[in-house]
Specification:
Order of helices and strands: EEHEHEHEEEHEHEHEHEHEH
Shape: globular
Helix content: 25-40%
Number of helices: 9
Radius of gyration: 17 Å
Strand content: 15-25%
CATH class: Alpha Beta
CATH topology: TIM Barrel
Length: 289
């Protein structure tokens, strides 16, 4: 592997669709809370925030007006930031509901999930299933969502929960759907996806198409080992309360911004430093928004 790039893109996933204030009171629900937390993350070193908008009482929503209000509140407070909206807006949403808000709002970037899979909440100690559903992402959805994003100037962030998701994307891209560079996110340790293992990470890395970028996120205690390996391999880092509510010492994080601060420290130990939003846009091929 060649010399590591100096700059590392740090993304903060602020809420997700499932993390609630009873798990960590810093989880944002309102547009104002999202904007304030995003600004703290930017100050700490994040170039991008990943957003699942919520209702005032914390439920994930596909309502375009609410998602737009959240997106716009972030951009109004911190215009420099890249806002990456989720195309997975909660359980039971239709394909039309999931993509309509992306087409309407046209964020700089949006998540694009790559395979249908079990997805839920399972107690890691007992194996007891708490939440259980099938996360539907068919080939047709991968194709249609990818086309819709590219046609509307939204750069896809291609979410791979295992090697199959990466292979699905490469298969569909024989149609020439995705503009270069392609941007992948390796997602580790979701119940229903692949657990974090260094050898699996290397296999995913080796399967990437030429010129692609990659970042990674890990759920729970796998967050910090996963982002460390990504940084070590020349990739980028995602932290945030969507994935993990704690810091490496086990304490509740004061916010996603505190996890960004930890990511900056990890990167510094490997001789890398946070990319600015402008640098991140150039690296990932994102149009200015």
């Amino acid at each position: 592997m060649s010399e590591l790039p100096k700059k590392v893109i740090i993304c903060a996933a602020l809420a997700g669709a499932a993390t609630m204030k009873n798990q960590n009171p810093a989880v944002p629900y309102t547009p104002k809370e999202f904007a304030e937390e995003a600004a703290k993350c930017y100050k700490a070193g994040a170039a991008m925030v990943h957003v699942h908008a919520r209702t005032d009482d914390g439920w994930p929503t596909h309502e375009i007006d609410r998602i737009k209000a959240t997106h716009d509140a972030i951009k109004d407070k911190t215009p420099e930031l890249i806002v990456n909206l989720s195309s997975a807006v909660g359980m039971g949403k239709t394909a039309e509901q999931r993509i309509a808000q992306i087409v309407a709002i046209k964020p700089a970037m949006a998540s694009l999930n790559t395979n249908t899979m079990n997805f839920g909440l399972v107690d890691r100690k007992t194996g007891q299933v708490v939440i259980d559903f099938v996360f539907e992402n068919t080939f047709t959805m991968l194709q249609n969502f990818g086309k819709a994003m590219e046609e509307n100037g939204v750069k896809p962030e291609i979410e791979c929960y295992d090697m199959g998701g990466l292979d699905n994307t490469l298969l569909i891209n024989k149609q020439g759907i995705f503009s270069e560079p392609m941007n992948f996110n390796f997602v580790w340790s979701v119940a229903g996806g692949q657990n974090f293992r260094p050898e699996s990470f290397v296999a995913m890395y080796n399967a990437l198409p030429a010129g692609a970028n990659f970042t990674t996120c890990g759920v729970g205690i796998e967050q910090y080992p996963a982002i460390t390996m990504s940084c070590l391999m020349g990739g980028h880092m995602r932290v945030g309360l969507e994935d993990n509510v704690r810091t490496p010492n086990g304490e509740l994080a004061k916010g996603s911004y505190e996890q960004v601060e930890w990511a900056v420290k990890i990167a510094a130990g490997l001789g890398r430093e946070p990319a600015t939003p402008a640098e991140a846009r150039k690296t990932m091929g994102i149009k200015q928004k």
